[in-house]
Amino acid sequence: MMTTKNKSRSHFIIIVLCWCYCCDSAVVWYHLPQWKVAHAFIPTVSNAKTSLTRAMSLDRWKARGFVPTLGSRMERTLTSREMLPPTNSIAATALSNSQAAVAASMAKKLYPASMIGTLGEAYFRTRKEMGCPRGAVVGYMAQIFTILISIPMISIVKSSSPDIHSILQVDWLHFIETVLFWASIHVQCMSFREAVGAVERGDPSLPASALHYKPKTISVLLLFGVTFAIAMGHYFANPSSWQHTELFGGWFNPPTPGRDFRLSGELSLLTWIFHWSMIMDYIMQLRCMWRWGDLTGNEKWKLYTLLHLPACLVNGIVLINHLHRDQIIALRLLHPILVFLGSIATCYGSYVVAHINGWNVVGRNANKTVDGMAYISLGPKDNLPKLIKGSDLSYTFASFAVGSLLAYCSLYLTV
Q1: Is 202 left (phi over 0), alpha (psi -120 to 50) or beta?
Q2: Quick one: DSSP state of residue 244?
Q3: What pLDDT band is residue 364 in, cutting at 50, 70 and 90?
Q4: Predicted confidence band at 60 (pLDDT cuts at 50, 70, 90)?
Q5: What is the average pLDDT value for the chain, to the nearest integer?
Q6: Whether the predicted pLDDT of 6 surpasses 50
Q7: Range from 67-76, 173-182, 198-207 that averages highest in pLDDT
């Protein structure tokens, strides 16, 4: 008989494996001669062999600057902006004009449409029937705020200079965007960790972050305030040419392994650290959400957790595209599709969690509990398996330590 803890581990292993397969498939799509996502979502064996052969070609990687050649330090004197082909020329070689028009139209429509599911999930998270920790609700609202301010931010960047085609080319601004997303997801992760940890330890009551909005609201305001102060410092340091300002003056940029120059659109070490830390916080949040379903007695929390799989795939796509400096057209077009599907899936999952506890469109069901936390058993527990180990501070330091190692590896793998 498989225990609850083993079931939880097995499901998350399946999620991670699916994420890895999606990432591998994305790399295969990138190496195919043409963009074939619309024709076959699963690459054939012959195509996979062809793409692997091309990927292992040393000359191909030398041409991209991944493997330094003799005299490359003296011969490669092009500026970073000259080394990055214009986005329009990349799109022209990868897609026909009709395909590009259809893809662009699709992306413009799906991003706003995905906000319907996102706002719906936010509504259900605020319902008492769902039993979501209040701090996690605050973090999710902060995430929506970050999404809303990222849209005009990207538009301003692209319209500020004709040679800038992606926010990745303005590293300090991309760093600000990444930190805002990290802060919102980190607050959600910490809220679930605190709530789950309190029940596992047998505390007499749930923490304040699970019962009230105020504690995590203060945390969000502090994190966002510091981040906006850093943004203002970078902007006013050079208002006339803020697009070319380096993140913290380049003080925290170590030498990129294998070469002595930086590519246009290449992420700095600090930006990579927050990216990887955000991914680890997201995975920890999903583990805590799964555990929260056991503690509240609402098994629909597990369905809600599994419906976050498209969002996990979005994170994998973003990381792979960042390693290629946002030049993989197929992934840029697949991103809005998965964002839309993920928003609808998580909105439905949050609805199911709230509905089983008595929420409906007409009103509350008096025959069922209206408090999603009502079935949590507080008090001493000796035999309950522990998911939360160590303090929240130690977890945060560990996530940044692992994120730093992965960030340095990402510098080496950027092509």
Answers
A1: left
A2: G
A3: low
A4: very low
A5: 75
A6: no
A7: 173-182
Report CA 77 to chain centroid distance, whole Å: 35
Taking the alpha carbons of 336, 337, 343, 344 in that order, is the dihedral positive or negative?
positive
Mean pLDDT of 63-80: 39
Tell if the pTM clears 0.85, that is, is over it.
no
* DSSP collapsed to 3 states, the chain: CCCHHHHHHHHHHHHHHHHHHHHHHHHHHHHCCCCCCCCCCCCCHHHHHHHHHHHCCHHHHHHCCCCCCCCHHHHCCCCHHHHCCCHHHHHHHHCCHHHHHHHHHHHHHHHHHHHHHHHHHHHHHCCCCCCCCHHHHHHHHHHHHHHHHHHHHHHHHHHHCCCCCCHHHCHHHHHHHHHHHHHHHHHHHHHHHHHHHHHHHCCCCCCHHHHCCHHHHHHHHHHHHHHHHHHHHHHHHCHHHHHHCCHHHHCCCCCCCCCCCCCCCCCCHHHHHHHHHHHHHHHHHHHHHHHHHHHHCCCHHHHHHHCCHHHHHHHHHHHHHHHCCCCCHHHHHHHHHHHHHHHHHHHHHHHHHHHHCCCCCCCCCCCCCCCCCCCCCCCCCCCCCCCCCCCHHHHHHHHHHHHHHHHHHHHHHCC
Alpha-carbon distance of 282 to 308, in angstroms, equals 10
Closest CA to 325 of 164, 107, 106: 164
Structure tokens at 47: 């195509």
Strands (DSSP E) along 102-217, which ranges? none
Q: What confidence tens digit (pLDDT) does each residue in 156-169 have?
A: 887 877 777 778 88
Distances in whole angstroms, Cα of residue 292 to Cα of each of 13, 25, 223, 302, 373: 18, 32, 26, 8, 10
Q: CA 355, 357, 361, 367 torsion: positive or negative?
A: positive
Q: How far apart are CA 230 and CA 225, in angstroms?
A: 9
245: tokens are 């300002």
Q: Which residue is it, tokens 């505390």?
A: 203
pLDDT band at 244 (very low <50, low <70, confident <90, very high): confident
Q: Which two tokens stand for residue 73?
A: 């330090």
d(CA 307, CA 310): 7
- Return d(Cα 262, Cα 162) in angstroms, integer: 20
Angle between helices 171-201 and 269-296 (to 10 degrees): 30
- pLDDT at residue 108 tops 70: no
Q: Between 370 and 123, where is the model more confident?
A: 123
